[in-house]
């Protein structure tokens, strides 16, 4: 557009200068203003994802699905005929190919593609257009995430085959955790975010033995600490997708709290879950993120009936338990609605006219 308009604009300005309508300085000012306005319009114009990027993404998904399906087909009816080394190779071979494909795609993307989107790498630019290279790389990021997830899962399976029936079996989860964690650090996105969190939870629960009969449920406490750490990392933007990260941290902490609450240390578990509920609701008041509200509300709705039923030794019976659960859900729903109204009022700011009575 600018190439077509430039000659017309130059001719019009030249005629206006010649007939005395504009001075030379005024013509230069008009020309400068025109180019600035055109540049601003191009920056804020909605950009579409090139169809070639979408096609490459779909093709990558199909290819990865074929590779995984081939591995499954090989380990199906012929699994017993393979040696341990053969089984591991059948799983590790496709895993390595998928990871190499992910690296090749990342390196081969033209332009100024970055491992982190421009808005993530520089939060001050989050309100501006992220650039064609960032829009074009969005499907590529998803594809890389899917390839790394599939590769890490198969590599974990190969490791499990090699160390099966040994004490090292419970450490298998460290393999996908390492692969997916490094993948997320290099290429941020929701798939690897969720995969890394799931692998971390799996690692805590498998590495730390859970014996609720005669020892402290350390795995539950560690999982709660992992959730807290996840939320802190999100607060410092070391983990992107902050609102999602709060939900993931809440799930980790809730799971850990329930492990403690269902052990001989149920009092400590209920105390930790109550603290989680308060932090979730307080986090919503501060951030207005629905994920924080969900963490607090769901935790309260689950914990209150548990506490009442446990400490009354189930004397209320099934009907009483249902009544307490229903009242808890209603109370938490009312509290959540109240918090949402308060958050909406704060976000909206002062309005004209007489104040509303809430």
Task: Determine the strand fraction and express it as a percent band.
Answer: under 5%
Q: Outline the low-pLDDT stretches.
A: 118-136, 347-358
Order of H and E elements: HHHHHHHHHHHHH
Structural class by secondary-structure content: mainly alpha
End-to-end gap:
54 Å
Report helical residue fraction: over 70%
As for the number of domains, it is 2
Shape: flat
Quick one: biggest sheet? none
DSSP summary, beta strand count: 0
Overall radius of gyration: 29 Å
| Number of continuous helical runs | 13
Mean pLDDT: 77
Primary descriptors:
disordered C terminus, 75% helix, 2 domains, 13 helices, 358 residues
What can you see in these coordinates?
The protein is mainly α. It folds into 2 domains: about 45-120 and about 130-205; about 210-345, no CATH class. Helices cover about 75% and strands about 0% of the residues. The chain has 13 helices and no strands. It has helices spanning about 1-20, 25-45, 50-75, 85-110, 120, 130-160, 175-185, 190-205, 220-235, 240-260, 265-285, 290-310, 315-350. The longest helix is centred in the last third of the chain and has 32 residues, at about 315-350.
Short note summarizing the structure:
With about 350 residues, the chain is mostly helical. Helices cover about 75% and strands about 0% of the residues. The chain has two domains: about 45-120 and about 130-205; about 210-345, no CATH class.
List the helices and strands and how they pair.
Blueprint: H1 2-18, H2 24-44, H3 51-75, H4 84-108, H5 118-121, H6 132-162, H7 174-186, H8 190-207, H9 218-235, H10 242-261, H11 266-287, H12 290-311, H13 317-348
Helix pairs in contact: 1-2, 3-4, 3-6, 4-6, 6-7, 6-8, 7-8, 8-9, 8-10, 9-10, 10-11, 10-12, 11-12, 12-13
């Amino acid at each position: 557009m600018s190439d077509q308009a430039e000659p017309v604009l130059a001719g019009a300005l030249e005629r206006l200068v010649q007939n005395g309508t504009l001075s030379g300085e005024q013509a230069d000012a008009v020309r400068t203003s025109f180019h600035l306005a055109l540049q601003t319009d191009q920056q804020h114009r909605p950009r579409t994802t090139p169809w070639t990027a979408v096609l490459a993404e779909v093709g990558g998904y199909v290819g990865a699905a074929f590779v995984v399906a081939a591995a499954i087909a090989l380990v199906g009816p012929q699994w017993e005929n393979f040696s341990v080394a053969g089984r591991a190779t059948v799983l590790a071979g496709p895993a390595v190919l998928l990871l190499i494909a992910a690296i090749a795609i990342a390196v081969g993307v033209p332009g100024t593609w970055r491992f982190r989107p421009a808005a993530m790498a520089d939060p001050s630019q989050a309100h501006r257009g992220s650039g064609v290279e960032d829009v074009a790389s969005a499907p590529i990021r998803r594809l890389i995430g899917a390839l790394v997830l599939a590769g890490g899962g198969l590599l974990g399976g190969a490791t499990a085959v090699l160390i099966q029936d040994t004490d090292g079996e419970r450490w298998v989860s460290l393999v996908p955790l390492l692969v997916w964690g490094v993948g997320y650090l290099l290429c941020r996105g929701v798939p690897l975010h969720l995969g890394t969190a799931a692998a971390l939870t799996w690692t805590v629960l498998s590495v730390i033995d859970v014996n609720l009969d005669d020892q402290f449920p350390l795995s539950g406490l560690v999982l709660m600490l992992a959730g807290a750490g996840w939320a802190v990392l999100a607060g410092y933007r070391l983990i992107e997708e902050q609102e999602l990260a709060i939900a993931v941290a809440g799930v980790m902490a809730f799971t850990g709290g329930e492990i403690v609450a269902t052990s001989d240390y149920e009092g400590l578990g209920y105390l930790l879950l109550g603290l989680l509920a308060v932090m979730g609701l307080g986090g919503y008041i501060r951030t207005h993120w629905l994920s924080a509200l969900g963490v607090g509300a769901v935790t309260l709705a689950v914990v209150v009936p548990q506490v009442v039923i446990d400490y009354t030794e189930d004397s209320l019976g099934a009907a009483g338990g249902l009544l307490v659960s229903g009242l808890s859900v209603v109370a938490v729903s009312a509290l959540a609605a109240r918090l949402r109204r308060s958050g909406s009022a704060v976000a909206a700011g002062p309005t004209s006219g007489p104040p509303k009575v809430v």
